[in-house]
Amino acid sequence: MNLHEFQSKILLSSRGVHVPEGQAVSTKEEARNTARDLKAAGFAVKAQIRAGARGRAGGVRLVSLPEEAMAAAGDLLGRRLATEQTAPTGHLVRKVLVETAVEPLQSLYLSLFIGAATAEIVLLAACEGGDDIEQRIQNGQTRFERLALGAEQTLDKTAAAGLGARLGLAAGLIPPFVELLGQLRDAFLELDATLIEINPLSVVEPGRFVAVDAKITIDDNALFRHPDLMALREESESDAVEIAAQNRNLNYLALDGDIGLVVNGAGLGLATLDMVRAANGRPANFMDIRTTATSLDVAHGFALLLGNPAVRSILVNVHGGGMQPCDTIADGLGIAMRRNRRSLPIVVRLAGNNAEYARFRFANFGCKVIDCPDMWTAVTRAVSAAQSGESQP
Amino acid sequence: MTILVDHDTRVICQGMTGWAGTHYSAAMLEYGTRIVGGVRPGKAGTRHLNLPIFDTVAAGMAETDANASMVFVPPSNAAAAMIEAIEAGMPLVVALTERVPVRDMIRVRDALKQGATILVGPNSQGVLAPDVCKIGVMTTGRARRGTIGIMSRSASLTSEVIAQVSDAGLGQSTTVGIGGDAIHGLGMRECLELFLADQDTRGVVVIGEIGGSEEEELADFVAAVKPRIPVVALIVGRYAPIEHRMGHAGAIAQGLAGDAESKIRALQAAGVIIAESPHLVGATMREALFVTA
Predict the structure, then answer these.
(1) With contacts defined as CB-CB under 8 Å, which chain A residues touch B160?
(2) Which of B156, B237, B242 is closest, CB to CB, to A86?
(3) Could you say which of A42, A75, A101 is where a domain stops?
(4) Residue B101 belongs to what domain range?
(5) How many domains would you assign to chain A?
(6) Which residues on B lie below 8 Å from A137 (Cβ)?
(7) pLDDT of amino acid B242
(8) Position A138 confidence tier, pLDDT thresholds 50, 70, 90
(9) Domain range spanning residue A361?
(10) Could you count the other beta carbons within 10 Å of the beta carbon of residue A224?
(11) Of the segments A123-132, A380-389, B220-229, which one has the largest average pLDDT value?
(12) Measured between alpha carbons, how far is A391 from A152 in angstroms, rounded to an integer?
């Protein structure tokens, strides 16, 4: 789960990390009032979406007056912001963060993440931050310093200070830097984070670091021990559909094509996307039905596709495994078809556990499906059905 | 021959009395796997599926001659169960549990450094040597005894590839679900080492996907050892939604962003044969064996 910037900053600031003064608001009037209360010389108005590269996409505005903050908020709120890191349709801006603008003396890049190969928490820092960091990495213009942080012991302060020195920090900045790393490491462990990224981390006055931007990703698999963070997830209504799908044991992500996909398992889901694109088709979604999903959960997934007017054919690619036989998926489709009057060409490819029984279930529900013997035949059939706009078989 | 399991594999199931443990243990017994007992704290002395239940893995090992454990314990306690088995000195632990928190897996990997245990998973679909031994949840209907080793990060795609390999007339020596999580036990590189050491494995299929750096590490290993048998790889996720593909700057800087194209390039450069599409894995392996022969 990716947290919003404002949520990340609240969590970090409660653990002693300095962040710019400010507040997240959802109306332009609140934006103006917040700016007035901040009594600063300048303000940053930042669109709150769960994706990076907002600056270059016009999602961050620097203004000097409360009225200008109101205008900027009015412009950003309610619109969809697309960045290099989102789909072209972008994300809906429901909140903006209004903050005191900072004048950095110096800026750094800092991130903590899980180094999978070595199974440890890795800290990565560069002596210059900024929102073009990805490009500068690719061009080899930025030098990184790396430090592995132990999982259960406390922070090795000598190593942290050494990292600060390697980054070329002034002597006076080393003690606050070490303190900050300790706070971030504790936050990482306490929150069950998989990423904390601070970019930029700025020095605004001698000896004081401020997290000007912050991004935290929480391990979804650990949310069961963080009911407070679970509540933050509900706060973002922009992906209400995806959250509803999650609650139905479906990993669902909307895309902008016309072929609805129903697939069990993440790997087969990715493989199906690749094949549809290779056949010049346009997927309307990514779907991974988890092994724990029931036929009612699957029906919810089908209903999402039937309810999407852009969808012109549905491709069901299921390899029944030991944990989820094909008939669960067939029952899900049958239930959804009985609830929804819309008829679409439904191309199915069933293999593995209970494939034959699933065909029997389709017949019992009166579902007319185009049954294909293998994946590639099914993919090309679903693509041609979508392109020709045929109705039911 | 097979890898990881053989006719002498004797399994105890941690979490045997739960729904999943019961269901899959029964299926394994039916397949012919030698399950010798189960572990469920507080139920020592009782029997389940007509097998003895123990409080701890150590007690189970003392009372039976178990040399493998499979973990069906729910996510909140799965790491503790794995660590218990590792500390008891269990030679092979196969963890089926999905959704184990990554922080817990850091502790498990720490524990692995101490002993000689091989951990497969978590979030593994198990290990299947057709007609010899099955540990886990894999379907066996399309599996055939044969000479191809399969290792995979994805369960549903594995069932598909097993069927393709069988349809190509090849069959499998062993199929290993190494697990879909970022931090897990046995890696692709170690799994390939095991396959290369097995005289009867004549080809290896690798099923990888975007994210992480295991495929890249495997490529380095293949380039270094130059295996005499063909290695065929399928990498999925070329067209994954952009939100799934975006690595953060830290990951990019570490070469860990792991997009499909860079994995494919690395593997190809190392001499691994890339299956052009997910439906062509079996055919690609058959052709590769024909060329090698």
Answers:
(1) 268, 271, 319, 351-352, 375
(2) B242
(3) A101
(4) 10-120
(5) 3
(6) 249, 252-253
(7) 75
(8) confident
(9) 242-388
(10) 14
(11) B220-229
(12) 59
